Amino acid sequence: MSGPKRDVLPNAVLFACNMNAVRSPIAAALMRHLFGRGVYVDSVGVKRGEPDPFAIQVLAEIGLEMQDHEPKTFADLVDTNFDLVISLTPEAHHNAVDLTRHMAIDVEYWPTQDPTAFDGSRTQRLDAYRAVRDDLMTRLKARFGTARPPDSES
Q1: Does the structural domain 12-143 have CATH classification 3.40.50.2300?
Q2: What phi-psi label fits residue 36: left (phi over 0), alpha (psi between -120 and 50 degrees) or beta?
Q3: Are the C-beta atoms of residues 115 and 22 closer than 8 Å to each other?
Q4: How many other C-beta atoms lie within 10 A of the C-beta of residue 77?
Q5: DSSP 3-state assignment of 8?
Q6: Residues 51-99 pLDDT 10s
Q7: Region of residue 47 (phi > 0: left; psi between -120 and 50: alpha; otherwise: beta)
Q8: Is residue 88 within 8 Å of residue 112, measured between CB atoms?
Q9: DSSP per residue, 13-62
């Protein structure tokens, strides 16, 4: 599916990945940071994962918090009134398309590397998480711009 017009900021965005522990909550935290209350943001996974300390750390490095994030699945969604679902994995994209099949919701697929798949030292693993964080920030800015709405909070 094609996404909404690039110059229009959606009112509500859902980010989706496999476990809702790394990629989608990082994307959600970054979107909230960029747009404050101007956009309702949530995240889900195909399965429910566990909070990831590396994801928490790489967001903390840029002044953002995620430690209160509780992973949830598509089935846990209470509200599906989203304008846009951004899926970050093939499995999540399949679920997003199924979720929105009979709804007027745009779906975009942003293939995103899984930093949990990287082996190596703590520093090397953190670098993989940082790369995902930075890539998502770049994509969000390219897709939605960087201006925070006037009524937003940090």
Answers
A1: yes
A2: left
A3: yes
A4: 15
A5: coil
A6: 999 999 999 999 999 878 899 999 999 889 999 999 999 999 999 999 9
A7: beta
A8: yes
A9: EEEEESSSSSHHHHHHHHHHHHHGGGSEEEEEESS-----HHHHHHHHTT
Backbone angles phi, psi at 125, to 5 degrees: -65, -45
The pTM of the full predicted model, rounded to 2 decimals, is: 0.90
Find where tokens 């942003």 sit: 110
| 3-state secondary structure (DSSP) of residue 96 | helix
Would the pLDDT of 3 be above 70?
Answer: no
Dist CA 100 CA 15 (whole Å) = 13
116-130: pLDDT as tens digits = 999 999 999 999 999
Residue 1 scores a pLDDT above 60: no
